[in-house]
Each structure stands twice: as structure tokens, then as C-alpha cells.
Design goal:
Helix content: 40-55%
CATH topology of the largest domain: D-Maltodextrin-Binding Protein, domain 2
Low-confidence stretches: 276-295
Structural class: alpha/beta
Number of helices: 14
CATH class of the largest domain: Alpha Beta
CATH superfamily of the largest domain: Periplasmic binding protein-like II
Largest sheet: 5 strands, mixed
Shape: globular
Mean pLDDT: 89
Strand order of the largest sheet: 7-6-8-5-9
Order of helices and strands: EHEHEHEEEHEHEHEHEHHHEHHHH
Oligomer: single chain
CATH architecture of the largest domain: 3-Layer(aba) Sandwich
Amino acid sequence: MENTSTWQRTLGRVAFLNCDPLYHQISDKWKILAAPPAWLTGHLLRKDCLIAPVPAADWALNRNELSLVPGMGIISDGSVGSVLLFGEREIEDMRDVALPTDSATSRRLLMYLLKKRGHDPRPVEMGPDLETMLERCDGALLIGDRALHEAQRRPDLVRMDLGMEWKDVTGLPMVFAVFATHRDAPLDIVSDAYKELQNSLNSFRNPEVKEEIVSACSSRSGFKEDRIRRYFEEVLYDFDSEVEAGLEMFISEVLEIEDFQLSEEMNQSLSPVNIPNALSIADSSSSDESLPPSS
């Protein structure tokens, strides 16, 4: 497509291992913008990128400007392994909890889950460094690769896996991040990006390809292949009715957005129905016209 703006050729991704299955096969026609989850929200709002997985809380609070792209997300149905509460004290004895600046959904989720236990420690915003956090606070929340690393280094300090706790409390999956795009984004280009992400995910499900990604992630991160393999079983990517129910409960109960109806938001966004329709239209035209040019 001629005269495509740079942001329309850029895909945002979380700079964590959990995004590798979605981005390992993206063509070089796209630029990749890697950032912490909460930062990606700002990138979408400023039109620094076309589509990105953003914290579910951020999308819900900015949905007047950001459209949901349903079908994929960063999800758990039980233990997630990478959203963890650490502490030397037991949870009921924690007087304060350090909340990392790179998180949005998990911060809100943790305080909700603690209140469900009848506990209300003082939240303290800090940079995501476990030692510094625990020097100042009784508890510390970490997400992503940092959480995986610290859980491996200090398993004795892990006090809560937020994915498992949410499952225990609600019986539903937890949606940590959703894919979103700016409401000004051209549908045909968004559809093309969606197709590449879905193709990458489908490729990841090939056992041979999955093992290649596990090996590459292990070499890059220093985690053992068995841990990476298990992590890719803990993190889920596909939406279904249970996942939608979990997302709706998080937004209505944790974010306390009254009268929220996910079905209405999906009708106003890029629904799973019109995404394939847009893809079929794009596929019927020239690939040179439907894909952004290389940079």
C-alpha cells in the first residue's frame, strides 16, 4: 500500500517470552516495537504502532480510543507462572506491597485478590526490582520474565500466582492482555496484521516449530528448556466463551466499570466475524496492495 504511515507498518509486542509464539514468523514487511505491557498502551494511543497486546485494564479504560481485536490475547486458565507475588512474610502479615511500574492489569488484580482474602495492605509503586522492592515493602509483585527469573532463583519467596488465585476465586480464565488497535487504524491493514499473528501462532503449534522456539528462548533467556516448555503450556492465546466471561468479570468486578457488556464492545470493535471478512477481501486482491511495503 502506497503512502502507508510508519505507525501502520509497526506491530507492538510485549518484550517478554510469552509473545514469542505470536511473533516468531512475522514477515520483514513489518517493524516490531518491543516494550513493557503498560508502555504499549501509550504507543497505541500516540499511534506509534498499529496493533499491540496491551493490559486488559488499559484497553477497558481507553476503549473510546482503542478498538478491541478479539480472538487472541495473553491468557491463563490457572497457574500463569509469570505474574507472582513475592514476600518473606505470609500474605496475611504483609503490611505493604510494592507494585511494579511496568504493570497495569496485574496491579489492579492483585489488590482485588488480596481484598477477597480480607486483606488490604498499603500499595507502593516502585520499579520492578525484587531486592529493592522487598527492602522497602513486605510484598512485591513482578510480572513477565522478571517474575520467572525470580521464581527460579527464590522459589521460597513466591506467595501467590495471580492466575491460579483468580481461577480459584472465579472459576474462570484470566485475561492479562488483549490485542487492540487505534480506532483510526485502517481495517484492511489491521486485518493483515491479525492474519500474520494468527499464522505465526498456528505455526507455533507444529511440534517441530515449537521445539525450535523453545530452544531459541532457552538460549536467549537462560531458562532451561523444560521450564520454557511448561511456560508455553501455562500461557494461552485463544479466546473462547469462557475467556470472554473471565475478561468481562475482570472489567466489571476488578475495574468496577458498571454495566460493562463485552458483547457490545466487540460489536463496536473488530469482531471475530468482520476480521475474517476483511481478510477474505484482502486475499482476493494483490498481496502487494494489501501488505505494507518494507521499510
